[in-house]
Write a structure and sequence with these properties.
By secondary structure, the chain is of the alpha+beta class. The protein is built from eleven helices and ten strands.
Length: 300
């Protein structure tokens, strides 16, 4: 219900027509004089939801509408105005960040946003999508400027947490949007599953393993993580490339290393991995891998 502040008339949804025709004042004048609405809260919510649904549908289906709308909004003058207004409102406490301290584990909204973004971005990168490319360029500039004027210093606890999270995702095959800028990355659709590769050599290895009759099964989603201390005394976590099971029921862990940027660290990784897995090998080429597989089959 909505009640007129002038004569106490009540209506289910709106007193808009009543105010303009009976009291001869505009809606803006009424709101200013009486600090009141002319539509009921339920009616405003219903209208807002309907308009929002229509706009969302049109935004998704009509590319011309989306382009026109963005051109109107994304002028430099409007962007600056929006930015300054938001900054001022944050300072005054009129706007608060709703997701501070919340994670996907304790908040359904954060979890939903994360899952939606994951679906939206999977398979897209700066090499095959112009929007991702532009975003990458913008973020690169922002982070360079931020690092220049306000360098981020990670403490040991933060670095350890990041390492734990990334290594687990990598070992479980969940880190599928990583790009280091130096190597080819993408999806390989194998005979039994799809796998994300981090280099051209890894992709060739996947194709070779799929066609090798001596290989029963292979994966890079093995969940294996090796904790080690690098040459600088920093705790790190290493994830090998492949876990391979052969037709003689033996298993080996293979690291494909086309070239070596840090020989000392590679030796340390090998040292720590060998303590847990004796059948661990560092391979440089596909030909070398083929020889090693034939050797493993023959020795058994």
């Amino acid at each position: 219900m909505i009640k007129c502040k002038i004569c106490n008339l009540e209506n289910n949804h709106s007193i808009h027509r009543h105010i303009t025709k009976i009291h001869n004042i505009s809606v803006d004048e009424y709101k200013k004089l009486y600090n009141a609405e002319v539509y009921s809260a339920e009616y405003r919510q219903k209208i807002s939801k309907n308009v929002s649904n229509q706009m969302t549908k049109r935004w998704a289906e009509d590319l011309d509408f989306k382009t026109r709308h963005l051109k109107k909004l994304h002028t430099e003058k409007i962007r600056n105005k929006i930015s300054n207004t938001l900054k001022e409102n944050y300072k005054l406490g009129k706007i608060t960040v709703w997701n501070v301290g919340k994670t996907k584990n304790d908040d359904e909204r954060v979890k939903g946003i994360g899952e939606k973004n994951k679906q939206h971005l999977t398979g897209r990168n700066k090499y095959n999508d112009v929007n991702c490319k532009n975003h990458s360029i913008r973020m690169s500039k922002i982070m360079k400027d931020r690092w220049k004027y306000n360098p981020i210093i990670l403490n040991d606890e933060s670095r350890k947490k990041i390492s734990e999270t990334l290594s687990k995702k990598y070992a479980d095959g969940e880190l599928t949007t990583y790009h280091n800028g130096r190597f080819k990355t993408g999806w390989y659709f194998g005979k039994k599953d799809k796998f994300y590769y981090m280099s051209g050599l890894e992709e060739k290895t996947m194709m070779y393993l799929d066609e090798n009759d001596n290989v029963l099964n292979w994966t890079n989603k093995h969940g294996i993580r090796i904790k080690y201390v690098d040459e600088n005394g920093v705790d790190r976590i290493y994830v090998p490339d492949f876990l391979i099971k052969f037709k003689n029921n033996t298993e080996s862990i293979i690291e494909m290393k086309g070239f070596n940027l840090n020989p000392q660290r590679v030796k340390l990784k090998k040292k720590y991995t060998k303590k847990l897995y004796k059948n661990y090998y560092i391979i440089k080429t596909i030909d070398e891998l083929e020889k090693k597989i034939n050797e493993i089959i023959k020795n058994k």
